[in-house]
Amino acid sequence: xxxxxxxxxxxxxxxxxxxxxxxxxxxxxxxxxxxxxxxxxxxxxxxxxxxxxxxxxxxxxxxxxxxxxxxxxxxxxxxxxxxxxxxxxxxxxxxxxxxxxxxxxxxxxxxxxxxxxxxxxxxxxxxxxxxxxxxxxxxxxxxxxxxxxxxxxxxxxxxxxxxxxxxxxxxxxx
Length: 174
Prior knowledge:
With about 170 residues, this protein is an alpha+beta fold. The protein has five helices and seven strands.
């Protein structure tokens, strides 16, 4: 390495490293290359982290079953092997509303990618939930824990379907 103003090569390297040579530290080609790679890799990495958080963070029960405290009745169509059984649950007491809400609150729900047809995947409960203000919405739940609520697909934990089916069966009217 050449001497610059009577300074040896080691001193020039030290000046460049500490930034006392008039330039900023790391102002060479290597630093620009690292900045470019950092600028290229950071946005996709940040997007991947945000998407993972969006699909992996559990959702509250209100995302799947809104207004569980104002349910008037539930019309149930149970589909298994092409056969449909129809029943309904109506006249909810406060205790029953609390039990249904507790069933949803104790389960975990996560978002799913895509528009899976929940009805074609095993035994399925098609629930039409009627609220006290006469609004209604549909909730499709299959035996694998996939839920279609208001056009969005969610995944419930394994015990949710069995708990919901048992709860509805105990209270259903033909």
